[in-house]
Write a structure and sequence with these properties.
Number of strands: 30
Strand order of the largest sheet: 1-23-22-21-20
Largest sheet: 5 strands, mixed
Helix content: under 10%
Strand content: 35-45%
Number of helices: 2
Structural class: mainly beta
Radius of gyration: 20 Å
């Protein structure tokens, strides 16, 4: 049975540091306060996940960029961010769960390769396509493995951009780039792949700036119905104020809400459409029940290092790279020490967590299945 972790017990643990890469109402009333609640315990689920065995899988392609992203699609897993060492161009690779095999796909035609972090383009998966949007605008047909160009995103292109797939549109939000007016710090565009067209989305009710462009940050999470957005207020008098907003693409409306965090921007986050969780200041954690809008109390993470969150079958998991994963037990309100699974490029597919470790020249790929 996994042991409860304490900060005192593991502060001396050797941990590999890996860089990682959310409509206002018409009145002026303050946003409603967030009530506090605890998650309902799920009998033994956290303990079973903590002790679940790890399976090593086929080695992914070499040359992954820091901004690599892993997606679960109808046609298996898709990995964006495979760089060719000679040309510098970047493409995707497909993983067959049935065959335990990776296939590197053709390289798309780009005016220039994405930057090392991959932050000059936004990447979303629709289930049947992989969309590369921003400075370059391309679609990868996952059934054929072929790339084709799509309509160009209207200028100005967003910087520090985040993108999410709503089920019918890819929404890209971020900061503005020159020659946009200085008073326009926010850019939001929605792409319809069937119509092959773009439209501007509504402007938030307050001037905001998305300042955390890390591809795995929790500053923007898509729940399946709405985007949860953390942004800084773009105001010279209160530049450090962090706002928590929601965006509903069905109504094209924003709303300012009370932040579930005790100040600051999240470094990582995860949602399964029922709950959402974030970490800021390396260890401070909190969640939000998306139905009741009640805050979920979570103790601080046990390791003071950069992490990546995932929700596996409703269980909150923290990934640290080379250190063992940790699982939050909602019944005991403790973090449990878990399996040794390395890496922070992760995706959840059903009850399975897939993780790629890109810290060495030869990447590793493994999975753990919730019991």
């Amino acid at each position: 049975m996994p042991k409860h972790l304490s900060l005192r017990r593991i502060t001396a643990a050797a941990v590999c540091t890996v860089a990682i890469a959310g409509c206002s109402s018409s009145d002026d009333s303050a946003p409603p306060a967030i009530a506090t609640s605890f998650s309902e315990p799920s009998a033994g689920a956290a303990q079973r996940l903590a002790v679940a065995s790890v399976t090593e899988l086929a080695t992914p392609p070499n040359g992954l960029i820091p901004g690599s992203k892993l997606f679960a699609t109808e046609r298996g897993l898709v990995l964006w961010g495979v760089r060719d060492s000679a040309s510098g161009q970047v493409t995707a690779a497909r993983y067959s769960v049935q065959d335990n095999k990776w296939t590197r796909l053709d390289f798309p035609t780009m005016s220039r390769p994405p930057n090392e972090s991959g932050l000059d383009v936004s990447v979303v998966a629709t289930g049947t396509e992989l969309l590369i949007l921003g400075r370059e605008n391309l679609s990868l047909d996952l059934s054929t493995g072929k790339w084709h160009q799509v309509a160009e995103m209207p200028r100005p292109f967003p910087t520090s951009a985040f993108a999410f797939w709503t089920g019918s549109q890819a929404v890209v939000i971020g900061g503005s780039t020159p020659p946009a007016p200085a008073e326009t710090p926010f850019v939001g565009q929605a792409f319809d792949p069937i119509a092959n067209s773009w439209r501007a989305i509504a402007t938030p009710p307050e001037k905001i700036r998305l300042v955390n462009g890390s591809l795995t940050s929790g500053a923007v999470l898509w729940t399946g119905k709405e985007a949860l957005v953390f942004a800084s207020r773009d105001d010279v008098t209160t530049p450090s104020t962090v706002l928590f907003l929601t965006y509903d693409p069905a109504t094209d409306k924003w709303r300012v809400e009370s932040s579930p965090l005790d100040g600051g921007m999240p470094e990582t986050g995860a949602t399964d459409g029922r709950t959402a969780y974030w970490v800021h200041k390396l260890t401070a954690a909190a969640g939000l029940d998306l139905d009741t809008r009640q805050r979920i109390e979570v103790p601080s993470l046990p390791i003071q290092n950069e992490s990546r969150l995932a929700l596996v079958d409703g269980q909150l998991v923290g990934l640290y790279g080379s250190a063992p994963l940790v699982v939050f037990d909602a019944g005991t309100k403790h973090w449990l020490g878990g399996s040794s699974i390395s890496g922070k490029i992760a995706v959840v597919d059903g009850r399975t967590l897939y993780v790629i470790d890109n810290s060495n020249a030869k990447p590793r790929f493994s999975r753990v299945i919730s019991g």
